[in-house]
Design goal:
The structure holds two protein chains of two kinds.
Chain A (H helix, E strand, L loop, with lengths): L10 H7 L15 E4 L9 H9 L4 E2 H8 L3 H13 L3 E4 L13 H12 L2
Antiparallel strand pairs in A: 1-2, 1-3
Helix pairs in contact in A: 3-4
Chain B lengths: L25 E9 L5 H8 L5 E10 L12 E14 L4 E9 L8 H4 L5 E6 L8 H10 L3 E6 L10 H7 L8 E4 L4 H24 L2
Helix pairs in contact in B: 1-5
The chains are: A mainly alpha, B alpha/beta.
Chain lengths: ~120, ~210
């Protein structure tokens, strides 16, 4: 059983990690795929180092959150920092234009195809 | 900051992380909703290529129904944990499957985390069918397409038929309703295919309409 509650410690710690910020970039989705564009450098915040290490291959925001054992919003803020410094790039999911908009049939056929091959 | 350092994994466990293909570029979402203990994580695990991971979201929200002029004092923090798994569909496309509780507080997160989801699976335990009423209501409200899968537990002594269940859930005819065994990979896969088939039909109908 892999399920284990995520221990985020006390809120003060999260506040420290994000430098007191609570607003994450809007365009960072749970499944935006993050890719490192450089190696960690000396003096970087430890969470930034971990993200750069994890994202040598693409990793979704939610995967980073699970690996770092941090809430999703905190990770979005941290990834946002790295994006602003051009140390990572993000491959965004198809724009969620309207919540009610259905994805086009071509994409769904691709998904069906992939599922049938499982 | 030692609190953020990785916990050493126990040696008997497989490597926690299986990296994605370097060419992965599109992440997709499907959400599995259902009551406590209905088998959401089991379903995610049966089809996922990684051991399901657990994470959470913390949000501060103004107290509902409380006088907002009272200021910061009425803010409360809500924490919602959820599991997820992953299926690489192709070199480019990767599907993330989220298992999420159906309780009321979870729906605060729907707009924020699960926006843009392809669709949802409502997982039902016939011993506690009322657990999913709220989820079905919210999905209809959000206009998120969904299918309903009945997780047939071994000791399903009631053994309601699908038509009885459809009636009990007041489920419209156009919503697919199927049996499954969340523990079995082929069955979990069939649930996902049923959902995406349904989504495809909806998309086709939409594209045919000028």
């Amino acid at each position: 059983m892999s399920r284990r509650p995520v221990d985020t410690g006390d809120p003060d710690r999260l506040y420290t990690i994000t430098g007191g910020r609570s607003e994450a970039p809007d365009d960072l989705d749970l499944v935006s795929l993050i890719v490192s564009e450089c190696e960690p450098a000396r003096g970087m915040q430890s969470e930034h180092v971990r993200i750069l290490e994890l994202c040598r291959r693409p990793a979704a925001v939610v995967e980073i959150a699970a690996e770092l054992k941090l809430p999703v919003t905190v990770v979005r803020i941290l990834v946002g920092d790295l994006l602003a410094m051009a140390k990572v790039t993000a491959r965004h999911p198809r724009p969620a234009s309207a919540a009610a908009a259905l994805p086009e049939s071509a994409l769904l056929l691709e998904v069906l195809d992939g599922l049938r091959k499982l | 900051m030692d609190s953020v350092s990785f916990e050493p994994s126990t040696s008997s466990e497989p490597p926690a992380r299986t990296p994605l293909s370097a060419t992965a570029e599109t992440g997709l979402k499907i959400v599995v909703v259902g009551g406590f203990g209905v088998g959401k994580t089991t379903l995610v695990r049966s089809v996922s290529e990684i051991r399901p991971l657990n994470t959470e979201e913390v949000m501060t929200e103004a107290g509902v129904g409380i006088d907002r002029t009272a200021g910061l004092a009425d803010k409360s923090t809500t924490t919602v944990a959820f599991d997820f798994g992953r299926i690489s569909l192709s070199e480019r496309t990767v599907l993330y499957l989220f298992g999420a509780p159906g309780q009321e507080r979870f729906w605060f997160l729907w707009d924020r985390l699960f926006v843009g989801t392809l669709g949802a699976v409502v997982l039902v335990d016939t011993r506690r069918m009322s657990d999913c009423w709220y989820a079905i209501d919210r999905l209809e409200h959000h206009r998120t397409p969904f299918v309903v899968a009945v997780n047939r537990f071994e000791h399903d002594s009631n053994a309601f038929s699908l038509s009885e269940i459809r009636q009990a859930l007041a489920l419209p005819e156009h919503v697919p309703l199927i049996d499954c065994d969340a523990r079995v990979r082929s069955s979990g896969k069939n649930v996902l295919i049923t959902l995406v088939d349904h989504l495809y039909e909806l998309a086709m109908a939409r594209e045919m309409t000028p």
